[in-house]
Amino acid sequence: MNPTLLAEAQTHAAEPFVFWLLAIVSVSAALGMILMRKAVHAALLLAVVMLSLAVLYAVLEAPFLAFVQVIVYTGAVLMLFLFVLMLVGVSSTDSLVETIRGQRLWAALAGLGFVGLLAAGVAGAALPTTAGLARANAEGNVVGLARLLFTKYVFAFEVASALLITAALGAMVLAHRERLAPKATQRALSKARFLGDHPTPLPGPGTYARHNAVDMPALLPDGTTSELSVNPIIARRTATAGMHTDLEGRTEEQAAGDDIAAVRAATDTAADADAQDREVKAGVPTAGNKEAGK
Amino acid sequence: MKAEGIQALAWLLIALPLASAAVLLLGGRRTDRWGHLLGTLAPVLSFVLGLAMFVQMLGYSGAERRRAVHLYEFFSVGGFKVDAGLLLDPLSMTFVLLITGVGSLIHVYSIGYMSHDANRRRFFAYLNLFVAAMLLLVLADNYVGVYFGWEGVGLASYLLIGFWQHKPSAAVAAKKAFVVNRVGDMGLAIAIMLMFATFGTVGFEQVLGTGAHHEGLATQLSTGTATAIGLLLLLGACGKSAQLPLQSWLLDAMEGPTPVSALIHAATMVTAGVYLIVRSAPIFEMSPDAQLVVTIVGAATLLAGAIIGCAKDDIKKALAGSTMSQIGYMVLAAGLGPAGYAIAIAHLVVHGFFKAGMFLGAGSVMHAMNDEVNMRRYGGLAKIMPITFVTFGLGYLAIIGFPGFAGYFTKDLIIEASWAHNPVLGACAILGAAITAFYMSRLMFMTFFGEKRWAEDAHPHESPPVMTWPLVLLAVGSVFGGAFMILGDRFMHFLEPVVGAPEHHHGFDPLAPVGLLTLAVVAAGVALAWAMYGRRPVPVEAPRGGVLTKAARRDLYGDALNESLLMRPGQWLTRLTVFFDNKGVDGLVNGLAAGIGGTSGRVRRVQTGFVRSYALSMFLGAALVVAALLVVRV
Amino acid sequence: MSPTHYLVLSAILFTIGGIGVLVRRNAIVVFMCVELMLNATNLAFVSFARMHGNLDGQIIAFFVMVVAAAEVVVGLAILMTIFRTRRSSSVDDANLLKY
């Protein structure tokens, strides 16, 4: 599809509709982003904003920029955010109680004032009639951009490329962990393993009649669960000790109720509306626990 | 006229004692062994030189006796030019002989009196310093030179009164003398400034003229300015001569060693005020009001001093009261105009002899009585100290005006002149003579006659010759000095080129009615003293006494008056200023500092350290910038 | 649509991002709000480009994106490093400038 034709069609016909829809969506998403407690939710809402902005760029006769926005910004940068969130700890919820006195009030006032001033300035500005990019995009938006980029702004282009290299190097340096001890060789690792408390490999998670998942702990010969069989990161999020409820003579409803109680205890029930909304379906407990597959 | 011959070396008169003082002070303990000898040699040399100059002066006549010695230009600032120069005329020559002569005798006396003092060398240094300053005072040919000498004798007086530095009373007395003198010095200083403002010069030749034919600028004074200058000069004279109202320091000055009291506070320094008034005669002539004030001051002081002297048991303080009173006579005479100038100076000279002689005699008595000064512990010393008794007695007869002795001539002339001027003044003078006779007789009876009221450890003995010979020489002056000067108007003629001649002059008449009246009251005073102290035994403890006695013992409440009028308000003022300084000035400064500290303590709480607060302020700032831009554009 | 609408939208999004920077404590969320601000400015640039009729605004928006990407990379690396030592990603932890 010719992007220019696409842009022209949208400019004339449905532009106001698209604009208003996306405006409402993006503003709501932005507001939600700053009000969300969980960081992951905020990141996803930012993705919504970015995508709606991409559509707006397309409406504004900037198709190249629209795709770059989706690919680079939403696809790369935002994903980078999500990765770091995962590494830092996605379970850490922000308390929404403000510690600095008057910060919220003044931030709201400043924000309202700022936006009011900007809007007043913009509204009062005498803007010339929109020229449209028909002529600039005559050879296609990409060609037009390229013409500008490699002639008028070539120096900035070069500097930006240097910046990217520097950023990559900087990130490598910052994320680098200096090895304080020499890298353990295979021989040293073996030695340590045999000198440690369990030379044999750890047991893997269990596979049972009702449950089969990575977070299902294995059973020891005496009937107790083995904490060692579950990955510690997963074990931090689940109560591995109480996994095998059916082995302890409870019914499925009881097991489900215990699961729900455990979930509630793990998250803040008072403010967490999600947990209250969730219905208790028989045998389908929530919040990342098991019963995934049968 | 320019000085010739030995008179051209007049500066040596001052330089010799000054050099001696410098050597003794800078030399320090190394000069202790011979310091007193050098210190005595200097004024003696000055006396010899002065005598030679005097003889040379006698060879001249009339206006030629006024000789000037120009030394160098002292300073020239704008239009004010002051030369350092000396003036040798009859008046200054009289003083030179008096200062160096009596001074030398007192120096000799001090060799013996201060022989037990470890700081004798320093004493002689200060005495020489004093002699040099006093000579400068009387020899200077302009008022600034006089002021120089004036301050110098004030300094020497301070150093000598407080000579025994370890005694707090001496230090306090020295400070008091200096401070009270300062008040007088201020008067002299302002008078000099006024003179400069009026005349443009302060030299004697220009201001006062050189005698009857060459009148100075003073004759062009308006009465108001003349009164002002005259009163200011009188203030200076009162300070130096211990006249009312600046008399409080003289009795306390007796804390110094007795030779000091004799030289400074009897014979010479306290007479500087009289010198000033007589020297500035042309100025006083232009203001009858100032002259009236001078006579009133003199009359009041002579009575006050006499009354104070009646109640003092301390022999030196009694003599100090007497000094105050006799100088009152001199000031009274000086205020009478041309009729009194020569008589005042004459009385000054004989007073120098007999008062110095009596002070030295008192010193001799104190020396014999282990430095006891309370006359109530004396008694019956006449036989044990004959030379002292006889010389003291001759001085006593001189001061009360016994016919034939020195005081008889000079004091009677003063009484007559004041009576002729104004009967009230004359009455005061006669009353003063009576009281003088009373208290001097009291002193004699208590000290030399009557029962022995000594302390246990007193072994009185006659003083060594080094102390008695000056007594003898001074007694000679007491006896013959008056007759020599007054009979034949010798002194009057001598001083005529300087002070002029009085209008009606009729020589000394021993049978004048006023003179006979004076003799009568004097006899009455002596008789009263004999009745109270000669016939009856003198109580060792001072009796309570009536109102007048109590008042006299407290110096007629002079100190109390000074305290309540000046000292306490001054203290309140300083306390007030200190209060304002502490609360006001310091409060302002400290309050400012505290205010800034408090404000900053509060303001620093803005620095919460939170990045978000800073981000908020940046955001607010950005909003303000946008607003500013909009306002400017729109 | 006149550019005014787009500009006002851009202003609103920018302000929301600004408030988010001030209000949120999690460092990563603050970073995301900064990205929102940058996006808002990009929108303004692009709408001006259409208004003027040349592509300079789009070029600038392009460069903003490049810079934002680089900035995110380095910023997140710094965040990681801090998190490793402090075990906390709260912005309020850096308060040594406190009085």
UniProtKB/TrEMBL annotation, chain A:
It is a multi-pass membrane protein. GO terms for molecular function: NADH dehydrogenase (ubiquinone) activity; oxidoreductase activity; quinone binding. Its main location: membrane. InterPro entries: NADH_UbQ/plastoQ_OxRdtase_su6, Nuo/plastoQ_OxRdtase_6_NuoJ. It holds the Pfam family Oxidored_q3. It is found in: Cell membrane. It is an enzyme of class 7 (translocase). Keywords: Cell membrane, Membrane, NAD, Oxidoreductase, Quinone, Transmembrane, Transmembrane helix. It catalyses: a quinone + NADH + 5 H(+)(in) = a quinol + NAD(+) + 4 H(+)(out). The chain crosses the membrane at residues 17-35, 42-60, 66-93, 105-127, 153-175. One of its GO terms (cellular component) is plasma membrane. Residues 267-294 are annotated as: Disordered. Its EC number is 7.1.1.-. NDH-1 shuttles electrons from NADH, via FMN and iron-sulfur (Fe-S) centers, to quinones in the respiratory chain. Couples the redox reaction to proton translocation (for every two electrons transferred, four hydrogen ions are translocated across the cytoplasmic membrane), and thus conserves the redox energy in a proton gradient. Belongs to the complex I subunit 6 family. This is NADH-quinone oxidoreductase subunit J. It comes from Actinomadura craniellae. The lineage of its organism: Bacteria, Bacillati, Actinomycetota, Actinomycetes, Streptosporangiales.
From TrEMBL, chain B:
GO terms for cellular component: endomembrane system; membrane. Residues 140-436 form the NADH:quinone oxidoreductase/Mrp antiporter transmembrane domain. Its main location: membrane. InterPro entries: NADHpl_OxRdtase_5_subgr (IPR018393), ND/Mrp_TM (IPR001750), NU5C-like (IPR003945), Proton_antipo_N (IPR001516). One of its GO terms (biological process) is electron transport coupled proton transport. It is found in: Endomembrane system; Membrane. GO terms for molecular function: NADH dehydrogenase (ubiquinone) activity; NADH dehydrogenase activity. Keywords: Membrane, Transmembrane, Transmembrane helix. The keyword Transmembrane applies. It is a multi-pass membrane protein. Residues 74-124 form the NADH-Ubiquinone oxidoreductase (complex I) chain 5 N-terminal domain. The chain crosses the membrane at residues 37-59, 94-111, 123-140, 146-165, 186-204, 216-239, 260-278, 290-311, 318-336, 342-363, 384-404, 424-445, 466-487, 511-533, 614-632. This is NADH-quinone oxidoreductase subunit L. It comes from Actinomadura craniellae.
From TrEMBL, chain C:
It is found in: Cell membrane; Membrane. It holds the Pfam family Oxidored_q2. Its main location: membrane. It catalyses: a quinone + NADH + 5 H(+)(in) = a quinol + NAD(+) + 4 H(+)(out). It comes from the Bacteria. NDH-1 shuttles electrons from NADH, via FMN and iron-sulfur (Fe-S) centers, to quinones in the respiratory chain. The immediate electron acceptor for the enzyme in this species is believed to be a menaquinone. Couples the redox reaction to proton translocation (for every two electrons transferred, four hydrogen ions are translocated across the cytoplasmic membrane), and thus conserves the redox energy in a proton gradient. Its EC number is 7.1.1.-. One of its GO terms (biological process) is ATP synthesis coupled electron transport. It comes from Actinomadura craniellae. GO terms for molecular function: NADH dehydrogenase (quinone) (non-electrogenic) activity; quinone binding. It is a multi-pass membrane protein. This is NADH-quinone oxidoreductase subunit K. It is an enzyme of class 7 (translocase). The chain crosses the membrane at residues 6-23, 28-48, 60-83. Belongs to the complex I subunit 4L family. Keywords: Cell membrane, Membrane, NAD, Oxidoreductase, Quinone, Translocase, Transmembrane, Transmembrane helix, Transport. NDH-1 is composed of 14 different subunits. Subunits NuoA, H, J, K, L, M, N constitute the membrane sector of the complex. GO terms for cellular component: NADH dehydrogenase complex; plasma membrane.
